[in-house]
């Protein structure tokens, strides 16, 4: 399928590895030029070279923490008028919510809610003026099925989800969509780190803890990052122009509810 976005420009945050990298590659495959971001310059430049060589698109880099004021400004200086914005940031640590201090909660909100809001503030109005825009926020399956061990992530990402739904009507008639992708059980370093916390708590090996997580997953496997990236690219396509304000869960059928 031709997604109709070849030649567009996308910012993809936290995209040197994991789900962000998968989104960047899927967009590049569709012919989208990229501005990719990560905090580690070495990993970022390596990813940029690999994507350029594989897909023959322009790939620029911004090594910065875009959840900070300075990082957000650095991204705007490099790319002032993107067509697509993929918000992504590493989640806060897992653990017992009773042991998190006030500063832990502030960091979680800055990283997983406020950072994305400020990038949307920087770019949404320009997208609306140009008549085309796609924003995809990578959040978490925990938004629909919260767990106490990921309480920092749940609280911040639910705040972002509510904010997005509130602003969607202002942009829906202007060619701009804003959607959220909710991954769960995708085979990434972050997932393995989080499951490692559970493994330690329950005196299990990492593989045993993974098997426990998969026990109630109908797909009976972890998701592949490329599956996630392909879904992101579709949400950025011309075909998805009537889909906005949605939170799309990708979890192999694990969530037991109807809605």
UniProtKB/TrEMBL annotation:
It holds the Pfam family adh_short_C2. InterPro entries: NAD(P)-bd_dom_sf, SDR, SDR_fam. The lineage of its organism: Bacteria, Pseudomonadati, Pseudomonadota, Alphaproteobacteria, Hyphomonadales. Belongs to the short-chain dehydrogenases/reductases (SDR) family. It comes from the Bacteria. This is SDR family oxidoreductase.
């Amino acid at each position: 399928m031709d997604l109709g976005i070849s030649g567009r420009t996308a910012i993809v945050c936290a995209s040197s590895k994991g789900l962000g990298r998968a989104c960047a590659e899927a967009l590049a495959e569709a012919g989208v030029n990229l501005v990719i971001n990560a905090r580690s310059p070495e990993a970022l430049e390596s990813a940029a070279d690999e994507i350029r060589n594989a897909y023959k698109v322009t790939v620029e880099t911004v090594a910065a923490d875009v959840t900070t004021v300075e990082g957000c400004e650095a991204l705007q200086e490099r790319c002032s008028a993107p067509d697509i914005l993929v918000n992504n940031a590493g989640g806060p640590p897992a653990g017992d919510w009773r042991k998190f201090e006030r500063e832990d909660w502030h960091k979680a909100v800055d990283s997983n809610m406020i950072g994305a809001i400020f990038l949307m503030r920087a770019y949404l109005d320009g997208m609306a003026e140009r008549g085309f825009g796609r924003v995809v926020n990578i959040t978490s399956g925990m938004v629909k099925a919260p767990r106490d061990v990921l309480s920092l992530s749940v609280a911040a990402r639910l705040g972002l989800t509510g904010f997005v739904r509130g602003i969607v009507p202002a942009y829906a008639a202007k060619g701009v969509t804003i959607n959220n992708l909710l991954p769960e059980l995708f085979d990434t370093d972050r997932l393995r780190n989080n499951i490692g916390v559970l493994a330690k708590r329950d005196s299990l090996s990492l593989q045993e803890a993974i098997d426990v997580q998969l026990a109630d997953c109908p797909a009976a496997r972890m998701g592949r990052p490329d599956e996630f990236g392909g879904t992101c690219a579709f949400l950025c396509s011309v075909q998805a122009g009537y889909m906005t304000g949605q939170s799309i869960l990708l979890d192999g059928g694990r969530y037991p509810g109807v809605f």
